[in-house]
Protein backbone atom coordinates (compact mmCIF):
# COMPACT_ATOMS: atom_id res chain seq x y z
CA UNK A 1 0.00 0.00 0.00
CA UNK A 2 1.16 3.53 -0.72
CA UNK A 3 0.48 6.65 1.33
CA UNK A 4 -2.18 9.18 0.32
CA UNK A 5 0.54 11.82 -0.05
CA UNK A 6 2.45 9.68 -2.56
CA UNK A 7 -0.66 9.10 -4.68
CA UNK A 8 -1.52 12.82 -4.61
CA UNK A 9 2.07 13.70 -5.52
CA UNK A 10 1.80 11.40 -8.59
CA UNK A 11 -1.43 13.12 -9.61
CA UNK A 12 -0.04 16.63 -9.21
CA UNK A 13 3.23 15.76 -10.97
CA UNK A 14 1.23 14.75 -14.06
CA UNK A 15 -1.04 17.80 -13.94
CA UNK A 16 -0.06 20.51 -16.43
CA UNK A 17 -1.86 23.86 -15.87
CA UNK A 18 -4.25 24.80 -18.67
CA UNK A 19 -3.82 27.93 -20.81
CA UNK A 20 -5.74 31.12 -19.99
CA UNK A 21 -8.36 33.26 -21.76
CA UNK A 22 -9.04 36.96 -21.28
CA UNK A 23 -12.75 37.39 -20.54
CA UNK A 24 -15.09 40.20 -19.43
CA UNK A 25 -15.17 40.48 -15.63
CA UNK A 26 -18.76 39.19 -15.49
CA UNK A 27 -17.69 35.96 -17.19
CA UNK A 28 -14.76 35.47 -14.79
CA UNK A 29 -16.78 34.88 -11.63
CA UNK A 30 -15.54 31.84 -9.73
CA UNK A 31 -12.64 31.12 -12.07
CA UNK A 32 -8.96 31.22 -11.20
CA UNK A 33 -7.20 34.46 -12.13
CA UNK A 34 -4.22 33.82 -14.40
CA UNK A 35 -2.37 37.15 -14.17
CA UNK A 36 -1.07 39.30 -11.35
CA UNK A 37 -2.75 42.67 -11.69
CA UNK A 38 -1.82 46.06 -10.25
CA UNK A 39 -4.14 48.98 -9.70
CA UNK A 40 -4.69 51.10 -12.82
CA UNK A 41 -6.80 53.96 -11.39
CA UNK A 42 -6.19 55.34 -7.93
CA UNK A 43 -8.84 54.13 -5.48
CA UNK A 44 -10.74 56.35 -4.92
CA UNK A 45 -9.93 57.98 -8.29
CA UNK A 46 -10.43 61.51 -6.88
CA UNK A 47 -10.88 63.14 -3.51
CA UNK A 48 -14.61 63.01 -2.78
CA UNK A 49 -17.23 63.59 -0.14
CA UNK A 50 -18.21 60.84 2.32
CA UNK A 51 -21.43 62.67 3.26
CA UNK A 52 -24.35 64.54 1.77
CA UNK A 53 -23.77 68.09 3.08
CA UNK A 54 -21.63 71.12 2.42
CA UNK A 55 -18.00 71.48 1.30
CA UNK A 56 -16.49 74.25 3.42
CA UNK A 57 -13.24 75.82 4.51
CA UNK A 58 -12.82 74.30 7.98
CA UNK A 59 -11.46 77.57 9.37
CA UNK A 60 -14.82 79.28 8.63
CA UNK A 61 -16.76 76.87 10.85
CA UNK A 62 -14.15 75.94 13.45
CA UNK A 63 -16.17 77.62 16.19
CA UNK A 64 -19.70 76.87 14.91
CA UNK A 65 -22.19 75.55 17.48
CA UNK A 66 -25.93 75.41 18.08
CA UNK A 67 -25.66 78.56 20.19
CA UNK A 68 -23.27 80.35 17.79
CA UNK A 69 -24.12 79.05 14.29
CA UNK A 70 -22.19 80.28 11.25
CA UNK A 71 -23.85 81.38 7.99
CA UNK A 72 -22.13 80.70 4.65
CA UNK A 73 -23.12 81.60 1.07
CA UNK A 74 -23.84 78.50 -1.04
CA UNK A 75 -22.12 79.18 -4.38
CA UNK A 76 -22.49 75.77 -6.11
CA UNK A 77 -24.43 72.53 -6.06
CA UNK A 78 -22.28 69.40 -6.58
CA UNK A 79 -24.17 66.13 -7.27
CA UNK A 80 -22.30 62.81 -7.67
CA UNK A 81 -20.94 62.64 -11.23
CA UNK A 82 -20.21 66.37 -11.53
CA UNK A 83 -16.82 67.44 -12.86
CA UNK A 84 -17.12 71.00 -11.45
CA UNK A 85 -14.37 72.40 -9.21
CA UNK A 86 -15.78 75.80 -8.15
CA UNK A 87 -13.63 78.36 -6.29
CA UNK A 88 -14.72 78.63 -2.67
CA UNK A 89 -13.71 81.82 -0.89
CA UNK A 90 -13.83 82.58 2.83
CA UNK A 91 -17.46 82.72 3.95
CA UNK A 92 -18.63 80.44 1.11
CA UNK A 93 -19.69 76.77 0.81
CA UNK A 94 -20.84 74.35 -1.92
CA UNK A 95 -23.70 71.94 -1.42
CA UNK A 96 -22.26 68.47 -2.12
CA UNK A 97 -23.54 64.89 -2.35
CA UNK A 98 -21.78 61.67 -1.28
CA UNK A 99 -19.21 60.64 -3.91
CA UNK A 100 -18.96 64.05 -5.64
CA UNK A 101 -15.40 65.42 -6.07
CA UNK A 102 -14.48 67.87 -3.29
CA UNK A 103 -13.52 71.32 -4.65
CA UNK A 104 -9.80 72.05 -4.28
CA UNK A 105 -10.57 75.08 -2.06
CA UNK A 106 -12.61 73.09 0.48
CA UNK A 107 -11.01 71.04 3.23
CA UNK A 108 -13.99 69.70 5.20
CA UNK A 109 -17.54 68.45 4.73
CA UNK A 110 -20.35 69.42 7.09
CA UNK A 111 -23.13 66.76 6.99
CA UNK A 112 -26.55 68.14 6.09
CA UNK A 113 -27.84 67.11 9.54
CA UNK A 114 -25.62 69.79 11.13
CA UNK A 115 -27.16 72.52 8.96
CA UNK A 116 -30.52 74.04 8.04
CA UNK A 117 -30.18 72.55 4.51
CA UNK A 118 -30.20 76.01 2.90
CA UNK A 119 -29.72 76.24 -0.86
CA UNK A 120 -28.48 79.81 -1.17
CA UNK A 121 -27.32 80.46 2.33
CA UNK A 122 -26.66 77.72 4.85
CA UNK A 123 -26.63 77.92 8.64
CA UNK A 124 -24.03 75.60 10.14
CA UNK A 125 -24.47 74.62 13.77
CA UNK A 126 -21.54 72.24 14.36
CA UNK A 127 -17.79 72.70 13.93
CA UNK A 128 -15.65 70.86 11.35
CA UNK A 129 -11.97 70.03 11.43
CA UNK A 130 -9.75 69.87 8.31
CA UNK A 131 -10.18 66.61 6.40
CA UNK A 132 -13.39 65.54 8.09
CA UNK A 133 -15.74 63.40 5.92
CA UNK A 134 -13.32 63.62 2.97
CA UNK A 135 -12.20 60.41 1.18
CA UNK A 136 -8.73 61.05 -0.23
CA UNK A 137 -7.79 60.01 -3.79
CA UNK A 138 -5.61 56.89 -3.61
CA UNK A 139 -6.13 56.25 0.11
CA UNK A 140 -7.28 52.66 -0.64
CA UNK A 141 -4.85 51.85 -3.51
CA UNK A 142 -2.38 53.97 -5.54
CA UNK A 143 -1.81 53.25 -9.26
CA UNK A 144 0.69 50.39 -9.46
CA UNK A 145 -0.21 48.95 -6.05
CA UNK A 146 -0.87 45.16 -5.97
CA UNK A 147 -4.54 44.25 -6.45
CA UNK A 148 -5.06 40.54 -7.26
CA UNK A 149 -2.56 37.72 -7.76
CA UNK A 150 -2.39 34.95 -10.32
CA UNK A 151 -3.79 31.80 -8.75
CA UNK A 152 -6.41 33.57 -6.64
CA UNK A 153 -10.14 33.20 -7.16
CA UNK A 154 -12.23 35.71 -9.16
CA UNK A 155 -14.61 36.13 -6.23
CA UNK A 156 -17.38 38.71 -6.16
CA UNK A 157 -15.08 40.81 -3.97
CA UNK A 158 -12.07 40.54 -6.30
CA UNK A 159 -14.23 41.41 -9.32
CA UNK A 160 -15.52 44.56 -7.65
CA UNK A 161 -11.95 45.63 -6.81
CA UNK A 162 -10.85 44.97 -10.41
CA UNK A 163 -13.76 46.94 -11.87
CA UNK A 164 -13.04 49.87 -9.53
CA UNK A 165 -9.35 49.83 -10.36
CA UNK A 166 -9.93 50.29 -14.09
CA UNK A 167 -10.33 46.80 -15.55
CA UNK A 168 -13.10 45.48 -17.80
CA UNK A 169 -11.50 42.12 -18.54
CA UNK A 170 -9.20 39.68 -16.76
CA UNK A 171 -7.16 36.62 -17.77
CA UNK A 172 -8.55 33.46 -16.19
CA UNK A 173 -7.45 29.89 -16.73
CA UNK A 174 -9.53 27.74 -19.03
CA UNK A 175 -12.04 25.49 -17.29
CA UNK A 176 -10.95 21.83 -17.28
CA UNK A 177 -13.15 19.86 -19.72
CA UNK A 178 -14.24 16.79 -17.80
CA UNK A 179 -16.28 13.68 -18.55
CA UNK A 180 -17.58 11.06 -16.14
CA UNK A 181 -17.91 7.40 -17.10
CA UNK A 182 -19.73 5.22 -14.57
CA UNK A 183 -19.02 1.55 -15.18
CA UNK A 184 -21.10 -1.38 -13.98
CA UNK A 185 -23.68 -3.72 -15.48
CA UNK A 186 -25.77 -3.31 -12.31
CA UNK A 187 -26.37 0.40 -12.90
CA UNK A 188 -29.68 1.90 -13.96
CA UNK A 189 -30.73 5.51 -14.40
CA UNK A 190 -31.94 7.28 -11.23
CA UNK A 191 -35.69 6.88 -10.71
CA UNK A 192 -35.94 3.65 -12.75
CA UNK A 193 -37.47 0.55 -11.09
CA UNK A 194 -34.85 -1.92 -9.85
CA UNK A 195 -34.70 -5.58 -10.80
CA UNK A 196 -32.88 -7.80 -8.28
CA UNK A 197 -29.16 -7.00 -8.40
CA UNK A 198 -29.57 -3.56 -9.96
CA UNK A 199 -28.81 -0.23 -8.28
CA UNK A 200 -29.34 3.38 -9.28
CA UNK A 201 -26.24 5.04 -10.72
CA UNK A 202 -25.58 7.69 -8.10
CA UNK A 203 -21.87 8.19 -8.83
CA UNK A 204 -22.53 9.95 -12.14
CA UNK A 205 -24.46 12.69 -10.36
CA UNK A 206 -22.07 12.80 -7.44
CA UNK A 207 -18.91 13.17 -9.50
CA UNK A 208 -20.30 15.44 -12.21
CA UNK A 209 -21.84 17.79 -9.62
CA UNK A 210 -18.63 17.93 -7.60
CA UNK A 211 -16.64 18.55 -10.78
CA UNK A 212 -18.84 21.52 -11.70
CA UNK A 213 -18.54 22.87 -8.13
CA UNK A 214 -14.80 22.76 -8.64
CA UNK A 215 -14.69 24.73 -11.87
CA UNK A 216 -14.93 21.99 -14.50
CA UNK A 217 -16.88 22.24 -17.75
CA UNK A 218 -18.85 19.04 -18.12
CA UNK A 219 -18.30 17.43 -21.54
CA UNK A 220 -20.44 14.34 -20.99
CA UNK A 221 -21.68 11.89 -18.38
CA UNK A 222 -21.84 8.31 -19.65
CA UNK A 223 -22.95 5.03 -18.12
CA UNK A 224 -21.46 1.81 -19.51
CA UNK A 225 -21.84 -1.87 -18.65
CA UNK A 226 -18.95 -4.14 -17.74
CA UNK A 227 -18.45 -4.93 -21.46
CA UNK A 228 -14.95 -3.78 -22.44
CA UNK A 229 -16.20 -2.73 -25.89
CA UNK A 230 -18.64 -0.22 -24.34
CA UNK A 231 -15.95 1.44 -22.25
CA UNK A 232 -13.62 1.45 -25.25
CA UNK A 233 -16.25 3.20 -27.37
CA UNK A 234 -16.89 5.78 -24.64
CA UNK A 235 -13.16 6.53 -24.36
CA UNK A 236 -12.86 6.85 -28.14
CA UNK A 237 -15.63 9.39 -28.23
CA UNK A 238 -14.38 11.42 -25.24
CA UNK A 239 -10.57 11.26 -25.30
CA UNK A 240 -9.98 14.13 -27.73
CA UNK A 241 -12.56 16.42 -26.10
CA UNK A 242 -11.47 16.19 -22.46
CA UNK A 243 -8.70 17.29 -20.14
CA UNK A 244 -9.88 14.85 -17.46
CA UNK A 245 -11.94 11.65 -17.57
CA UNK A 246 -13.21 10.28 -14.27
CA UNK A 247 -14.23 6.61 -14.25
CA UNK A 248 -15.97 4.98 -11.34
CA UNK A 249 -16.12 1.28 -10.55
CA UNK A 250 -14.10 -1.68 -11.68
CA UNK A 251 -10.78 -0.85 -10.04
CA UNK A 252 -10.63 -3.58 -7.40
CA UNK A 253 -10.21 -7.33 -7.76
CA UNK A 254 -13.47 -8.17 -9.56
CA UNK A 255 -13.53 -10.70 -12.38
CA UNK A 256 -15.53 -8.40 -14.68
CA UNK A 257 -13.63 -5.13 -14.39
CA UNK A 258 -13.32 -3.51 -17.82
CA UNK A 259 -11.41 -0.51 -16.48
CA UNK A 260 -8.39 -2.54 -15.42
CA UNK A 261 -8.68 -4.87 -18.37
CA UNK A 262 -8.59 -2.04 -20.87
CA UNK A 263 -6.29 0.49 -19.23
CA UNK A 264 -3.70 -1.40 -17.24
CA UNK A 265 -1.93 -3.68 -19.76
CA UNK A 266 0.27 -1.02 -21.41
CA UNK A 267 0.64 1.01 -18.22
CA UNK A 268 -1.31 4.10 -19.28
CA UNK A 269 -3.19 3.95 -16.00
CA UNK A 270 -1.54 2.65 -12.84
CA UNK A 271 -3.65 0.86 -10.27
CA UNK A 272 -2.53 1.29 -6.68
CA UNK A 273 -3.65 0.40 -3.20
CA UNK A 274 -3.65 3.54 -1.08
CA UNK A 275 -3.56 3.40 2.73
CA UNK A 276 -6.91 5.10 3.21
CA UNK A 277 -10.46 4.01 4.05
CA UNK A 278 -12.51 4.32 2.00
CA UNK A 279 -10.72 4.81 -1.29
CA UNK A 280 -8.12 2.03 -1.17
CA UNK A 281 -8.10 1.03 -4.85
CA UNK A 282 -7.12 3.94 -7.11
CA UNK A 283 -6.34 4.18 -10.80
CA UNK A 284 -4.56 7.19 -12.28
CA UNK A 285 -2.72 7.98 -15.49
CA UNK A 286 -2.89 9.68 -18.86
CA UNK A 287 -4.72 8.27 -21.85
CA UNK A 288 -2.56 7.62 -24.93
CA UNK A 289 -2.89 5.53 -28.11
CA UNK A 290 -5.19 4.09 -29.41
CA UNK A 291 -7.57 6.69 -27.97
CA UNK A 292 -5.28 9.68 -28.56
CA UNK A 293 -2.87 10.36 -31.45
CA UNK A 294 0.80 9.67 -30.75
CA UNK A 295 1.80 13.35 -30.78
CA UNK A 296 -1.08 14.58 -28.60
CA UNK A 297 -1.33 14.93 -24.84
CA UNK A 298 -4.25 12.76 -23.80
CA UNK A 299 -6.61 13.46 -20.91
CA UNK A 300 -5.76 12.59 -17.33
CA UNK A 301 -7.74 9.54 -16.23
CA UNK A 302 -8.92 8.77 -12.72
CA UNK A 303 -10.22 5.29 -11.96
CA UNK A 304 -12.15 5.79 -8.73
CA UNK A 305 -13.61 2.92 -6.72
CA UNK A 306 -17.28 2.27 -7.38
CA UNK A 307 -18.51 2.32 -3.79
CA UNK A 308 -20.23 5.71 -3.51
CA UNK A 309 -18.51 6.90 -0.34
CA UNK A 310 -15.17 5.72 -1.76
CA UNK A 311 -15.81 7.63 -4.99
CA UNK A 312 -16.74 10.74 -2.97
CA UNK A 313 -13.63 10.66 -0.80
CA UNK A 314 -11.41 9.84 -3.78
CA UNK A 315 -12.77 12.81 -5.70
CA UNK A 316 -12.17 15.17 -2.79
CA UNK A 317 -8.68 13.92 -2.00
CA UNK A 318 -7.28 13.41 -5.52
CA UNK A 319 -9.50 14.84 -8.29
CA UNK A 320 -10.32 18.12 -6.59
CA UNK A 321 -6.67 19.16 -6.08
CA UNK A 322 -5.97 18.13 -9.69
CA UNK A 323 -8.79 20.36 -10.99
CA UNK A 324 -7.44 23.24 -8.92
CA UNK A 325 -3.88 22.68 -10.19
CA UNK A 326 -5.14 22.50 -13.80
CA UNK A 327 -6.70 25.92 -13.22
CA UNK A 328 -3.45 27.30 -11.79
CA UNK A 329 -4.92 27.81 -8.30
CA UNK A 330 -2.31 28.81 -5.73
CA UNK A 331 -3.91 26.53 -3.11
CA UNK A 332 -4.85 23.00 -4.15
CA UNK A 333 -5.48 21.26 -0.83
CA UNK A 334 -8.34 22.01 1.53
CA UNK A 335 -7.74 23.89 4.75
CA UNK A 336 -8.16 21.63 7.80
CA UNK A 337 -9.80 22.59 11.06
CA UNK A 338 -9.53 21.01 14.48
CA UNK A 339 -12.85 19.71 15.80
CA UNK A 340 -13.96 17.91 18.95
CA UNK A 341 -15.64 14.51 18.48
CA UNK A 342 -19.27 14.57 19.66
CA UNK A 343 -19.38 10.76 20.03
CA UNK A 344 -17.06 7.72 19.85
CA UNK A 345 -16.48 5.92 16.55
CA UNK A 346 -14.40 3.04 15.23
CA UNK A 347 -11.59 3.46 12.71
CA UNK A 348 -10.06 0.86 10.36
CA UNK A 349 -6.71 -0.65 11.31
CA UNK A 350 -3.69 0.36 9.22
CA UNK A 351 -5.46 2.83 6.92
CA UNK A 352 -6.08 6.55 7.41
CA UNK A 353 -9.80 7.12 7.84
CA UNK A 354 -11.71 9.69 5.75
CA UNK A 355 -15.08 9.70 7.46
CA UNK A 356 -18.10 11.52 6.00
CA UNK A 357 -19.08 13.82 8.82
CA UNK A 358 -21.39 16.46 10.13
CA UNK A 359 -19.29 19.43 11.21
CA UNK A 360 -20.91 22.04 13.42
CA UNK A 361 -19.72 25.40 14.64
CA UNK A 362 -21.02 25.92 18.15
CA UNK A 363 -20.36 28.48 20.89
CA UNK A 364 -17.92 25.95 22.33
CA UNK A 365 -16.01 25.63 19.02
CA UNK A 366 -16.08 23.24 16.07
CA UNK A 367 -17.52 19.74 16.66
CA UNK A 368 -17.74 16.64 14.47
CA UNK A 369 -19.81 13.47 14.37
CA UNK A 370 -20.06 10.67 11.77
CA UNK A 371 -22.67 11.33 9.07
CA UNK A 372 -23.71 7.66 9.29
CA UNK A 373 -25.15 6.45 12.57
CA UNK A 374 -23.24 3.20 12.16
CA UNK A 375 -19.95 5.00 11.51
CA UNK A 376 -17.76 4.19 8.59
CA UNK A 377 -18.84 2.22 5.48
CA UNK A 378 -18.01 2.83 1.83
CA UNK A 379 -21.52 1.75 0.71
CA UNK A 380 -23.44 4.07 3.09
CA UNK A 381 -24.59 6.43 0.35
CA UNK A 382 -27.68 7.60 2.25
CA UNK A 383 -25.45 9.12 4.92
CA UNK A 384 -23.79 11.35 2.35
CA UNK A 385 -26.94 13.47 2.45
CA UNK A 386 -25.96 14.46 6.00
CA UNK A 387 -22.27 15.06 5.32
CA UNK A 388 -20.97 18.59 5.10
CA UNK A 389 -17.34 17.51 5.30
CA UNK A 390 -15.11 14.73 6.46
CA UNK A 391 -12.92 13.82 9.40
CA UNK A 392 -9.35 12.59 8.89
CA UNK A 393 -8.12 10.10 11.47
CA UNK A 394 -4.56 8.82 11.51
CA UNK A 395 -3.94 5.16 10.60
CA UNK A 396 -2.47 4.49 14.07
CA UNK A 397 -5.72 5.45 15.86
CA UNK A 398 -8.05 2.51 16.61
CA UNK A 399 -10.97 4.39 18.06
CA UNK A 400 -11.97 8.02 18.36
CA UNK A 401 -13.43 8.88 21.77
CA UNK A 402 -15.94 11.59 22.55
CA UNK A 403 -14.03 14.81 23.21
CA UNK A 404 -10.94 13.84 21.16
CA UNK A 405 -9.65 16.51 18.81
CA UNK A 406 -9.60 15.40 15.17
CA UNK A 407 -8.82 17.12 11.89
CA UNK A 408 -11.78 17.94 9.64
CA UNK A 409 -12.36 19.44 6.22
CA UNK A 410 -15.56 21.38 5.79
CA UNK A 411 -16.89 21.24 2.23
CA UNK A 412 -17.56 24.44 0.41
CA UNK A 413 -17.51 24.92 -3.33
CA UNK A 414 -14.39 26.62 -4.59
CA UNK A 415 -16.19 29.87 -5.35
CA UNK A 416 -17.49 30.01 -1.79
CA UNK A 417 -14.16 29.04 -0.30
CA UNK A 418 -12.29 31.95 -1.91
CA UNK A 419 -9.26 29.67 -1.94
N1 LIG B 1 -11.37 -9.29 -3.08
C1 LIG B 1 -11.39 -7.98 -2.90
N2 LIG B 1 -12.53 -7.34 -3.09
C2 LIG B 1 -12.61 -6.02 -2.88
C3 LIG B 1 -11.47 -5.29 -2.46
C4 LIG B 1 -10.25 -6.01 -2.30
O1 LIG B 1 -9.20 -5.44 -1.94
N3 LIG B 1 -10.28 -7.34 -2.54
N4 LIG B 1 -11.56 -3.98 -2.23
C5 LIG B 1 -12.86 -3.46 -1.85
C6 LIG B 1 -12.85 -2.04 -1.82
S1 LIG B 1 -12.00 -1.36 -0.54
C7 LIG B 1 -13.53 -1.28 -2.69
S2 LIG B 1 -13.59 0.40 -2.48
C8 LIG B 1 -14.29 -1.85 -3.77
C9 LIG B 1 -14.01 -1.15 -5.11
O2 LIG B 1 -14.71 -1.76 -6.06
P1 LIG B 1 -14.68 -1.39 -7.59
O3 LIG B 1 -14.07 -0.09 -7.81
O4 LIG B 1 -14.10 -2.52 -8.32
O5 LIG B 1 -16.19 -1.15 -7.90
P2 LIG B 1 -17.34 -2.15 -8.27
O6 LIG B 1 -16.98 -3.52 -7.84
O7 LIG B 1 -17.72 -1.90 -9.65
O8 LIG B 1 -18.47 -1.59 -7.31
C10 LIG B 1 -18.34 -1.52 -5.93
C11 LIG B 1 -19.67 -1.18 -5.30
O9 LIG B 1 -20.08 0.12 -5.72
C12 LIG B 1 -21.33 0.10 -6.38
N5 LIG B 1 -21.29 1.04 -7.49
C13 LIG B 1 -20.48 0.96 -8.55
N6 LIG B 1 -20.73 1.97 -9.40
C14 LIG B 1 -21.73 2.68 -8.87
C15 LIG B 1 -22.44 3.84 -9.29
N7 LIG B 1 -22.15 4.45 -10.47
N8 LIG B 1 -23.40 4.34 -8.52
C16 LIG B 1 -23.69 3.72 -7.34
N9 LIG B 1 -23.03 2.63 -6.87
C17 LIG B 1 -22.08 2.10 -7.64
C18 LIG B 1 -21.44 -1.32 -6.86
O10 LIG B 1 -22.74 -1.70 -7.11
C19 LIG B 1 -20.78 -2.10 -5.73
O11 LIG B 1 -21.67 -2.28 -4.67
O12 LIG B 1 -13.98 -3.21 -3.95
C20 LIG B 1 -13.98 -3.98 -2.73
N10 LIG B 1 -13.79 -5.35 -3.08
O1 LIG C 1 -11.22 1.30 0.25
MO1 LIG C 1 -12.83 0.81 -0.11
O2 LIG C 1 -12.84 2.34 -0.77
O3 LIG C 1 -12.93 0.74 1.64
O4 LIG C 1 -14.48 0.77 0.23
UniProtKB/TrEMBL annotation:
Organism: Pseudoclavibacter helvolus
Pathway, per record: Cofactor biosynthesis; molybdopterin biosynthesis
A GO CC term assigned to this protein in UniProt: cytosol
SMART domains with a match to the protein in the record: MoCF_biosynth (SM00852)
Enzyme class, first EC level, given as a word: transferase
Sample GO molecular function, one term: metal ion binding
Listed CDD domains: MoeA
Transmembrane stretches, start-end: none
Cofactor entry: Mg(2+)
InterPro entries: MoaB/Mog-like_dom_sf (IPR036425), MoaB/Mog_dom (IPR001453), MoeA-like (IPR038987), MoeA_C_domain_IV (IPR005111), MoeA_C_domain_IV_sf (IPR036688), MoeA_linker/N (IPR005110), MoeA_linker/N_sf (IPR036135)
Protein name: Molybdopterin molybdenumtransferase
Amino acid sequence: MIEVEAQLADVLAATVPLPSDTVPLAAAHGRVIAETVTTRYALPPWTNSAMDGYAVRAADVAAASKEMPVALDVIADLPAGTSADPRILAGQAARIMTGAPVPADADAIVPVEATDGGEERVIISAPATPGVHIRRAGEDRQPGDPLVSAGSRASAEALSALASAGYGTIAVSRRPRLAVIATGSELVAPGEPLARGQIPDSNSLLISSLAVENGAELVDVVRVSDEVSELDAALRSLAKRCDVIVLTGGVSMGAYDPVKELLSPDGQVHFSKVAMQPGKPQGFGRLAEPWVADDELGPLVFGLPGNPVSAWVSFLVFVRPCLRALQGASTVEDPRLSARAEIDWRTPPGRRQYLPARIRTTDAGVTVSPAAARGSGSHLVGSLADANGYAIVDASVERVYEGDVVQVVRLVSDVDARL
